[in-house]
Amino acid sequence: MKFAKWVFRVAGIYGILVLLPFYFVEDKTQFIPLPAITHPEYYYGFIGVGLAFQVVFLIISTDPKKYRLLILPSIIEKFSFAIPVAVLLMSGRVGPYIIPGATIDTILGVLFVISFLRTK
């Protein structure tokens, strides 16, 4: 249980620190090698859903055994970014700038799977 508590607490805090600033930099995204934001509702929707999941991670960290089933959608949340990025990289549709974020999500996804298996 200590392992899962630690993993989900770190993931939640990390995610909040990474995502929260995006609420304040939409007008500066032209400096990031990404397409222009043509639908700000998707931009802010992504940030909102991402932050909501960080809160889920923090809730799980309080009692992983009690919230064990919430680990399953948390695993999906991590791999739903990591797997498509791997496919997009192999097909040349995204650049290497995305690798660090996808790698972190992959590592956290694996740690979430381990946490799920260890909190029976």
Q: Distance N terminus to C terminus?
A: 9 Å
By secondary-structure content and strand pairing, the structural class works out as mainly alpha
Q: Quick one: overall form?
A: globular
> How many domain units?
1
Please give the number of β-strands. 0
Describe the structure.
This protein is mostly helical and 120 residues long. It has one domain (2-118). Helices cover 70% and strands 0% of the residues. It contains 4 helices and no strands. The protein has helices at 2-19, 40-62, 68-90, 99-118. The longest helix has 23 residues, at 40-62. The protein is globular and about 45 Å long. The N and C termini lie close together (9 Å). The model has no long low-confidence stretch (mean pLDDT 91).
Key features of this structure:
120 residues, mainly alpha, 4 helices, 0% strand
Describe the secondary structure blueprint for this structure.
Blueprint (H helix, E strand, L loop, with lengths): L1 H18 L20 H23 L5 H23 L8 H20 L2
